[in-house]
Amino acid sequence: MVLWFTGLSGAGKTTIALAVTEKLKAANYKVELLDGDVVRTHLSKGLSFSKEDRDTNIRRIAFVANLLSRNGVIAIVAAISPYRSLRDEIRHSTNNFVEVYINAPLEVCEERDVKGLYAKARSGSLLNFTGISDPYEAPISPELICHTDVETVHESVNKVLAEVLGRAKRLG
């Protein structure tokens, strides 16, 4: 399956995805984590943050996630992936796609911003920043929603694990 974590920068995608990855590996599942920031520095190096380049980056991540999934690996993607239409396109081209909306209000994400990206975006020195000068289109019908402003990391991780293990049992 492909677990696709989407949400604003600072919502908790990577934190939850890392914890889910560790738990699944400890339970002897084959798992790979594709973190948007890491992929961007390797597979998508040189791409800008224009809509076209963002779409290219997300399509590349989806391609790799699909390959992994088809080969018996649980692919966990943690990427902002701000555009609903592209996430829907990926959903329709991916078997066992599970969209996990890591939902935190913009104000909370800004408070958590250790890199200072939101402040740079608000000052105008960082352009095309999701949630400030570029849109984030929240999922309409995700399989899971983690409200990271009110749930602990542990609660969110357990919610995702319950979904994954339930699906794994049904898939055999």
Give your account of this protein's structure:
The chain has 172 residues and is of the alpha/beta class. The chain has a single domain (2-164), classed as 3-Layer(aba) Sandwich (Rossmann fold). It is built from seven helices and five strands. Strands 2-3-1-4-5 form a five-stranded parallel β-sheet, sandwiched between helices. The longest helix is centred in the middle third of the chain and has 20 residues, at 51-70. The model has no long low-confidence stretch (mean pLDDT 92).
Low-confidence stretches: none
**How would you describe the shape?**
globular
Strand line-up in the sheet with most strands = 2-3-1-4-5
What is the string of SSEs from the N terminus onward? EHEHHEHEHHEH
Q: Strand-residue fraction?
A: 15-25%
> Which CATH-level-2 architecture?
3-Layer(aba) Sandwich
Stated plainly, the CATH topology is called Rossmann fold
Our measurement of the CA-to-CA distance between the termini, rounded to an integer number of angstroms, reads 12 Å
Question: How confident is the prediction overall: mean pLDDT?
Answer: 92
Approximate helicity band: 40-55%
What would CATH call the class? Alpha Beta
Whole-number count of domains: 1
CATH homologous superfamily descriptor = P-loop containing nucleotide triphosphate hydrolases
Report the strand count: 5
Largest sheet: 5 strands, parallel
The structural class is alpha/beta
Tally of contiguous helical segments: 7
